[in-house]
Each structure stands twice: as C-alpha cells, then as structure tokens.
Amino acid sequence: MFFLGGICLLSSCKNQAQDIPENIQTEVKQPETMTKETIYQFKVKDLNGKDFDLSSLNGKKLLVVNTASKCGLTPQYKDLEAIYNKYKSKNFVIIGFPANNFASQEPGTDKEIASFCQLNYGVSFPMMSKVSVKGTDMCSVYKFLTQKSKNGLQDSEVEWNFQKYLINEKGELEKVILPQVLPTDASIVDWINK
Prior knowledge:
194 residues, alpha+beta, four-stranded mixed β-sheet, 7 helices, 6 strands, 15% strand
C-alpha cells in the first residue's frame, strides 16, 4: 500500500512539473563567471614620475614587492637585486612599490627613495612611485594582487613590507610569498627557473 502511494505521489509530481509554463521550467540561474584580470592592464608611475605600462612586461615572469627604507626587512633589497641581476636575461623582472603602510617605515619622497635604493643597494630593477598597499586608498595594482575576484587565484592581505607576488608570463598571479621569506629562497628561485 505504501509503495503504491509513493508511485502515485511521484506520478502526481511529474504531472505537475509538466503543467509549469515552459519559460519558468527553463529559467536556471547560471553561476556568475569571474573575470580573471591580468597585471598588464595597469599603467603606473615610476620613481622619476614617468609612465610605466605593465603591458610592456608581457611574456616575462614578475616578482612584485612592496618595499620600505626603514624596515628590519630592508636588507632584502640586496637579495632582490642579486636575483634580478642573475635572472633578468631569462625574462624575469622585479617591480618594487614603495609603501608607507606599515609603522611609517617609508616616509620619504620618491626622489629620496630613489636615492636611498641606489646609494645603499644599487637597485637597478624598476621601482614605482610610492603607493598604498592597504586600506581605502589601496592602489589598483594591489587591489588586483589581493582580490580573488580580480586575480582569479586567491584573496590575500599584504601583511608587512616586502611581501612578494609572483606573476607568470601571461600576467596572472601564481603565488603569494610572505614578507619574511628571502627573495633567494628556493620557493622563489625554483619558480623563476621552472
């Protein structure tokens, strides 16, 4: 008896579904597609105030890093310069973004930052104009780097000076490296070489 009732109930549901107007039956909400952006869409200013179009780096691996002149991690400039010089002939570029978001450790002007980097560490990789990497005034490049809805990989937060973002040859975010990890660490060098 129970079995017979179940069949009738199923049959009844099937008949009711056929009574639903066609336009309602076919209306299925499609999942939102995430538009994966690339870093190549951005134009920024370098430390000398000149336009720097990131699309000019298409086809290269990039390490994007927020820097500061008065931080305990500032000596990482030496390692950044070392790996830049070692791998720049292999389509690898480092882009530095000075930022004053953490304990006011980058108070200088662009001109002062440029002088500091050259004088103390011989920095030759591209350094951009000072930006904000956190908060309501976060620059558009860092919105891309930290928001999954834009980079297609993950949400992240810049934890401190010298956090590193690894970008593949297509301009896509591939990896986030914490500030304390040295630029010469195997996780970075192996990624450059793969």
